[in-house]
Amino acid sequence: MIRFGWSSNLFFNSTRIRPSMPPRTSDDKAIKIMEAAGHVLANKGYMGTTINAVAQQAGVSRGLLHYYFKNKEDMLAKVLKKNMEISTQMIARIFQAPGDAAEYAREITELLRGIMTRDPDFFHLFFEGYAVARHSTVVREELSNMYGQFRKALESGLVEAADQGFIRPDMPAAPLAAVITGLLDGMGLQLLTEPDLADCPDIWVGVEQSIMGLLMS
Q: What CATH number did the domain enclosing 39 receive?
């Protein structure tokens, strides 16, 4: 899981930009509880997660967790929301500096690569969320809202880059953002089930070239 106080430099190898994560809030206990919930959900799964396990991981009382989460369903939705908020900020920052299709493609690829190699819990959480969303309106609506925000941030960056002549995509920005998001999610799922693929340089070259082809048709 993306740690909520970490620097996003963890996920970027870019020398062109160095985006930073939001600073830690003063409520370190809330951050600790959220991180503990994400860790347990990612490693034990939704069905295997218990309030006791999260409380033990966070080093807090069971009763305190009820102050932060209504139930386990609410816990998963809030952890997913926090992770996606960070991802949305990170994808938006890629387009804040001038670049070209190759640079944007490389940085989007490095974002995915950094998460997969340094923090695979991130995708474990989201795919756990997909499974739960089939039966949970709360989680399904949260995922839909989060993906909408992520695609909108990506779409805005694509529009700005296209307006400035940095990229020349064939398709409109909204469907292009959806395609790129799908590519990232698809690779995330494949690399979770076959993690050794993350060590293959050709995989990342292929992802980068695929994104670059979409940006400069």
A: 1.10.357.10
